[in-house]
C-alpha cells in the first residue's frame, strides 16, 4: 500500500461526497433507537460548542448503527426568535432571508464535520407547515382552559422590547442578552402549566436516565410546599386575609402580617388605615423595582390596619413588605420574627416584638435573640400545644384551624403559568381574533395556518410591525362575519421547541401533526443531548407539552426523553468562548488547517462530556499527530487480515497484542455504550495503537494475522470518532465491505482472562515501577510485593509509607 502524506481535506471531501449520495441506515430493520441533540438556533455559523455537542451525537449514532440498531438521528432548526429581527434591522435584510441563508450555511458546516443526519426529515420551526400544528394545539388548549388571556404583571425587557417568561429571567436580567428586566402590567396569553405541577413533579422520580442536577433544578423550580392557608380577619375591613405558611407550629409567635405590594387588598388597606398617600407611594415605588433590588434589603410600611390571629385572638399590625411576592403562596405572610430570619431582620428594623414559641429539643434559647431560630423543636408559649414537637404541632394546629373553619391544609407551588405572548414580529402568530360582538374567537382549524407576513418593514425602534400592518390585522370574525382584528403578539419561541422532537418522525406528513405508528415506534427519545442551561426552560416545557398532547389525544406517552446527557461548555483562557472576550475558535479555520476528524477527536478526548472542555492548541496538534501516526502505521502494514487469529499458534508478544485488542474492544464498548465516557474510549484506543507500534518495532517478524486484527480493530473502534480517515484507511487496507457497513467488533471473554497482570506502582501518585503479579492475588500480597520492589525501595529512600492503596488489576499507590 502506497504511503503518501495524510491529506485530511482530500480524504474528507471524498467521503462526504460519497455519504451525501447514500441514505442513512434508519430503516435497517434493527431495534429502533431515537437519538437527538437539541436543535440549534440558526445564528449564522456553528461554534465549537456545536461541534462538541453534535460530535457526541454522531459518535453515538455511528456506534449504535454498527451494533445493529435502526437509528433515527434527525436535525432541524429552532428558527424563530429575536436575534433574527435584530440582525435584520442591522443588516437591512428580511428575517426570513437572514434565517434561510444562515440555515444553508450551518447545514453545509455540519456536513463538513462529517455528521450523518436524517436530512430527509429536516424541519425549520419558521415554516408554516410546522407552526400550523402548533396553532392547532393552542386552539385546542384554549378550548380546554389550558390557554387563557389575562392582565398581569410581567417581566419586561426594554432592550428586547418584549415580555419574558419567569424561567427566562436570571436574577434581574434577561436570560439571553443579560439586559435589565422590569415589571410591567400587560394583557398576556398564558399556558396553564400549573395544572400539571404535581404530575411534572412526580414524573421526576421516573427519570432514572437524567442527571440528578437537572432533576433537582426542576424539583426546586416547581417548588412544592405543603402547608396551611390561614384566615387572618382584617379588623378595619371586616373580611379575611388569606396567608400561607409551611410552619403552622409557629403560629402563636406571629407578631405582624406582611403583604406584597401587588396584593389586591393594598389600596383598601391603605384607605382603611388612613395612610393612603404614604402607603400607595411605597407600593408604587417597590412595584417598579427589579427583583434584585427588592431582594437587597428588608423594607416595609405600616398600613394602619390590623389582623386577628385566629389561633389566639391576638391583634397584630399589617405591613407592606418589599420581600413578599405575589408569585408565591397568597401574597400575604404571617410573620414570625423569632423563627424566620427575614422576618427577624424586618422586625428588628421596625421595632416589632420577637416572641419565641419553638425551642431546641435539648435546651432553651438565650434571649433576646441575635438571630432567628429556624429549626424544628419543641413548642412553648403556645397554649394547649406546649410540649409538642414541631411536626406534631403542625398537624395538631392545622386540625384545630380546620375545626374552627379558619384554615385549611393545602399545597402551593413556586411554578407559575407560562406567559407565551411576545411583542415581536419573528414568531408564530397566535391564532385568535378580537371581535367587538363575539369577544375572543379562535381561528377555525380549516383556516390554519395563520401565516406570518413576510413582506414587512421592521421598525428601527425594535417594535413589532404587525400592529400597524393593516393587511394582517384587519380580518372578519369567524363566528359572526363582522369586522375583527387579529392578535398581533407572537408565541414564545420555546413553544416551538416544546414539541419538535415529536414531529421529526412525521416531518413529511401533511394531513396531521403525527403518525401514531411512527410515534409508537420511535418515541420517547432514547437519548437526548444538550446544555444544562435548558433544565428549567426547554426541558420543563417539553415535559409539560408532551402531557398536554397526551391529554388532547394526539399521543400516548407522558415523558419525552428516556435518557439525558448535558454536555459542558467549550471554554478558552478560563472563560466561555465569545466574540467580546476575543477567545473564539472558528470551526471552519480549524477544519481547514487540521481536518474535521482532528476537531472531532480533540473534542471527544479532551474532557468527559458533562464537564467543561478547556481549549488547547497543543491538544488539537496532538490529535492531528495521532491521526497522522495511524495513517503511517496502517500504510506500512499493507493489506490487513481482519479475522481474529485466535490464541493458538501465537508467541507471547502476539498473544499479548491480541489480548490487548480484545481488552480495548471491551473497554470502548463499555465507555461509549454504557458509561458515555468518550474520552476514556479514545484513551484506550490510543493505548492500543501504542502497543501495536511497540509490537512492530520490537518483534523481528511480526505475525501479520495478529497485526492485521489489531489494526483493523483499531479502525473499527475509531470509526465513530473519526469516520473519514478510518473509512479511507479501511478501503485501502481491507477493501469491502465499507467500514460503515461493518458490525461493531465483539470481544472474546476468554481473551480477557489473565493469569498475570502488570500493575504500575506509584509513590505519591507518580509511577516509579511496574510489577507483574498473579491475577487473583489479594491486596495484602500485592502491597507486599510492591514494597519489596527495588525501584520502589530506592524511591522511598528509607521513608516509612503512611498507607498503601491497592486497586486490583489497576494500580498500586504508596503514600509517604
Structure characterization notes:
- Helices cover 38% and strands 20% of the residues.
- It is of the alpha+beta class.
- Among the domains are: 133-192 and 417-494, HUPs (Rossmann fold), CATH 3.40.50; 224-413, Isoleucyl-tRNA Synthetase, domain 2 (Alpha-Beta Complex); 587-752, Isoleucyl-tRNA Synthetase, Domain 1 (Orthogonal Bundle); 756-815, Ubiquitin-like (UB roll), CATH 3.10.20.590.
- The strands form ten sheets. Strands 10, 11, 12, 13, 14, 15 and 18 form a seven-stranded mixed sheet that branches.
- The longest helix is centred in the C-terminal third of the chain and has 22 residues, at 652-673.
- The two termini are 53 Å apart.
- The relative contact order is 0.11.
- The model has no long low-confidence stretch (mean pLDDT 94).
What's a concise summary of this model?
38% of the residues lie in helices and 20% in strands. It is built from 27 helices and 34 strands. A hairpin with a 6-residue loop joins strand 13 (300-308) and strand 14.
Set out the fold topology:
Blueprint: H1 8-21, E1 32-37, H2 48-66, E2 70-72, E3 76-77, H3 82-91, H4 95-112, E4 123-124, H5 128-143, E5 147-157, E6 162-164, E7 169-170, E8 173-174, E9 182-191, H6 197-203, H7 212-222, E10 224-234, E11 239-245, E12 256-259, H8 266-272, H9 276-287, H10 291-296, E13 300-308, E14 315-321, E15 332-335, H11 341-350, E16 358-359, E17 378-379, H12 390-404, E18 407-413, E19 418-419, E20 421-422, E21 432-435, E22 439-442, H13 470-473, E23 474-476, E24 483-486, E25 490-491, H14 493-496, H15 500-503, H16 516-522, E26 525-531, H17 538-551, E27 561-567, E28 570-572, E29 575-576, H18 587-594, H19 596-605, E30 613-614, H20 617-637, H21 652-673, H22 678-698, H23 704-718, H24 723-733, H25 749-752, E31 756-763, E32 766-774, H26 779-788, H27 790-796, E33 803-807, E34 811-815
Parallel strand pairs: 1-2, 1-26, 3-4, 12-14, 26-27, 28-30, 31-34
Antiparallel strand pairs: 5-6, 5-9, 7-8, 9-19, 10-11, 10-13, 10-18, 12-15, 13-14, 16-17, 20-25, 21-22, 21-24, 23-24, 28-29, 31-32, 33-34
Helix pairs in contact: 1-24, 2-19, 3-4, 8-9, 18-19, 19-20, 20-24, 21-22, 21-23, 22-23, 23-24
